[in-house]
Every structure is written in structure tokens, then in C-alpha cells.
Amino acid sequence: FSLRRMSADYMSVQVTKGAEKYEACLPVHSLTKDLHYMVENLTGIPISCQKLIHKGRSLNDPATPLMKYNIKDGSKIMLLAKIADFESDENYIAICNVEKNLCSTQKKVHDVSEEIKGIERGYLENKLVQDALKQVNKRLKAIAEEMLRQLEQLDSLSLGDSHRECRFKRKTVVSKIQSSLEDTDKLQENVEQLMTSYTNN
User: Fold this and answer.
1) Looking at the chain, which terminus has fewer C-beta neighbours within 10 angstroms, N or C?
2) Same domain, residue pair 37 and 132
3) Where would one find coiled-coil regions in this protein (predicted)?
4) Which structural domain, as residue segments, surrounds residue 157?
5) pLDDT value of residue 84
6) Residue 26: what are its φ and ψ, rounded to 5°?
7) Could you say which of 35, 58, 82 is where a domain stops?
């Protein structure tokens, strides 16, 4: 543990995990979450699996300044590594449920896409095409609305710094939804072009 004199704006605290010791140097006005990030960089232990203790008191609130916990230059912090249990977290479960629903929605997009291909290949009588395209367009709008609701569900989840796995999972599912929305938009454009084409004919 370094005994060098720190500047007035910085402090050095000792983080111990069993026999392991780490030195964390950070601004005196840092928040608890800043210490969590530094501990993750020093130890490789994810924030969600960290439990930091100072003089018997758990540092639970990421937004609390370290000074509120009476942490200063030379303070000693105990680090306990918790077993990752994010898969049982209600937010993680909610995200997985949205992802499951998305799979069903993506199948609808695929089915509509195949139906459009059939129309393009002339599998339907010309007199039936316009009505069929109107129905397809209506279904695509409903599918898009369904995916927008899924995005709203994900956006409504309150995920703090201690939910890194949940935030990563949400980001992944959001990307999937956005990609499917783009596919749906392209299909709608295709349908509108077909409707114009058959109207002119």
C-alpha cells in the first residue's frame, strides 16, 4: 500500500479481498459508483458481483459521495465477491420475456415477407392482389406497433450501475428490435410500390 502523500484533490484507499490488496487512487469528491468502476478495473470483478464494506458499513448507494461514508485518504475498503445471480433478477427476466415475444414477432415478419414474394411471383389472381396487399400492409403496421411496444417495455425498466448484465442484455434486444423494425419498414415500402404498380396496371 503506497504511503506517498496525495494531493488535496485526490485520495488513495486500500481495497482488500482476502490476502489480496489493491490501491485505488481517485478524486476526493468521487461517488461510490466511481470506486466500483475502479475496483472492477483493478480486480476484474463485475460491479454487480461486488460488495464493498467500510468499517462494517456496506457501500450500497452508487450515487452517494464517498465522503458521506467517511472514506478519505488512507481508508481501507473490504471487497467481497458475490456470486452472479443476475439471471434471477426480475429486470433480466422481463428482458428475456420481451426477447421471447420478439422471436414470435420476427416469425410474423418472415411470414409476411414470404406472402409478399408469392404476390410478386404472380401466385395470386390480379383482381385479388389489391385487397391482399391492403391486408398485408395492415398486418405490417400492427407488427411495427407491437415492436414499438416492446421497445417501450425495455425503456421502462430502471437499471442502475449495478445491473450491467441487464443493461447489456437490454441493449442486445433493443438492437434486434430495431433491426426487425427496419426490415418491416422495407417491406411496407415494397408493399406500397406493389400497390401503386397494380393500380397503374
Assistant:
1) C
2) no
3) 126-157
4) 90-200
5) 62
6) -150, 160
7) 82
List Cβ neighbours of 88 (8 Å cut-off, separation of 6 or more): none
Tens of pLDDT, residues 84-134? 666 678 888 999 999 999 999 999 999 999 999 999 998 888 889 999 999
Same domain membership, residue 190 and residue 104: yes
Q: Are strands 76-81 and 57-58 parallel, antiparallel or unpaired?
A: unpaired
Our CA angle for 54, 72, 67, nearest 5°, is 80
Helices 164-200 & 90-120, crossing angle to 10 degrees? 20
Determine if residue 122 is left, alpha or beta; phi over 0 gives left, psi from -120 to 50 gives alpha, anything else beta: left
Where among 47, 65, 82 does a domain terminate? 82
Q: Does one domain contain both 105 and 179?
A: yes
pLDDT over 50 (residue 6)? no
Distance CA 136, CA 116 (A): 8
Contact (CB, 8 A) for 110 and 102? no
Residue 39 lies in a domain: yes
The pLDDT of residue 1: 40
Q: Checking phi first, is residue 12 left (phi over 0); if not, alpha (psi -120 to 50) or beta?
A: beta
DSSP conformation letters of 88-120: G-HHHHHHHHHHHHHHHHHHHHHHHHHHHHHHH
Is the pLDDT reported for residue 7 higher than 60?
A: no
Residue 4 lies in a domain: no
- Please report, as a single letter, which amino acid is at residue 145: E
For 11, the 3-state DSSP assignment is: strand
Question: Do 183 and 101 share a structural domain?
Answer: yes
